[in-house]
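I wish you would study the pair of lines that follows with an eye to the fold:

===
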Amino acid sequence: MRKVFGLGLVLIWMSTPLLAQHKIAYIDSDRIYQNYPEFATAQQSLDRLAQEWEQDLSERQQTLDEMFKEYQARELLYTSESRQEKQNEIIAAEEELARMRIQYFGPDGQLFHQQEQILRPIQERVLEVIQEVAEGEGYDYVFDRNGDFVFFYLNESLDITDIVLEELGVDVTRISSGGLR
């Protein structure tokens, strides 16, 4: 047991100089995207598209509701064949509405594909700039404070968000400092 403990101490002692040689920084991707005009424009475009689709679905839902109300009001007047025919129309309209909702907003829907098409080039550009800044400043690692990593302490001097924003052409003097939230 002492050998394992001793080996552990030796490994920690040996790795300490290696850790000291690494230069680490972080970015705030939310702040970058909020202040990057190209991203804001693309997001507005996607939001407009989503609103149009929501409006289409809302209109289809209203039509479906009207069909159902009409059916309920006249149900006793229909023959059994007509009643079944109207029920089938309502069911078909419900299925069409559900299909359209999935087509627009499903996991493989049009909104997802539009996001991929519109946002991916912007995200790739931001990543390129982060890499350029990291290489230019000599950083070995750059973390995103909004990612899956949990930081209990962040040295604000390691925040390169403003440098990335400047490289993207954003005037950082007009935006407030991100700081810890």
About this structure: The first strand starts at residue 24 and ends at 27. Confidence is low (pLDDT under 50) at residues 1-14. The two ends are 45 Å apart (CA to CA).
